[in-house]
Give the backbone structure.
Amino acid sequence: MRSLTSQVPISHRSREHTPRAGDARSIDGFRYGPGYTGGVVTAIDLSSINIAATRLQAYDAQADYTLETDRAGALHFYAVATREPLLERRTVPTASFVDFVGFDSGVLEWRGNVGLDWSRGSWMLGWNAQYYDSYLVYAPGSTAATIATAILNQGSATIPSQTYHDVFARYRFGGSSTLTHGVLANTEILVGIQNVFNTSPPIVVSGNYSTYGDPRLRRYSITLRHNF
């Protein structure tokens, strides 16, 4: 956002009208281009306008498939992926567009997750994997000196791609459950493990670790939900 000076709309209007013979002239303290025919300016709106620009291309894909069986329960497979080949920004109209795809503090070109759930009766088991593409160790628009320093400190030009796995198990007690004298009737217990393989996020010299991972590594969770 930026506020314009009073001369900018005057110059813009001068270019919109049909030129006619004559030199640039000044009226009421404003300089008008040759051929200005818009008349005397009585008011100018100098409120802030958006002068920045963004160009974006992104593609999403999703697949789901459920296999129902009589005795073995149901299997549900799903996959979601996003590709973002283009994200360019410029802050002012006179500046060049800067690419943000695949840079530190930018966006990833590829990311997605895939999973498989099994359910039968009161039971459900699930697995999910998340994928994050590799990216450069320096920020968009960095100078050659900054890029060289970042690569030297990191020991590599890129942060490697990352994959993390989660699993969970869920059991639902029915409304007629007599376990513990019916205390657990209409209750759901969910046990989960995040980052099953205890994968460490890549170390990033500029920010300690890649924020697409979790420095807490493997984590456990238990959720108890009761419906009244």
Notes: The helical segments are 7-16, 144-154. The longest strand covers residues 74-90. The chain has two helices and twelve strands.
